[in-house]
Design a protein that fits this description.
Radius of gyration: 27 Å
Mean pLDDT: 95
Protein name: Candidate secreted effector
Keywords: Coiled coil
Number of helices: 1
Number of strands: 0
Length: 64
């Protein structure tokens, strides 16, 4: 649907700008996804550490 009063070159420029905006959004999304995965991995590592600490504490309590 063409907007009234806009020339073909105006519409083309608008389309290029929208395309660039979509590319930026995709890039930002990809970066956020990477950060999310990094944080998820950190969380899993911390959960594993906590489990190990709990096991050690249980052993210490048992031995006392």
């Amino acid at each position: 649907m063409a907007e009234e009063g806009l020339t073909n070159s105006d519409l083309e420029l608008k389309l290029v700008n929208q395309s660039n905006d979509l590319i930026k959004l995709q890039t930002n999304f990809n970066e956020l996804q990477l950060k999310f995965n990094e944080e998820k991995e950190k969380t899993l590592n911390l959960e594993n550490e906590l489990r190990e600490m709990k096991k050690k504490n249980q052993i210490i309590i048992f031995l006392n």
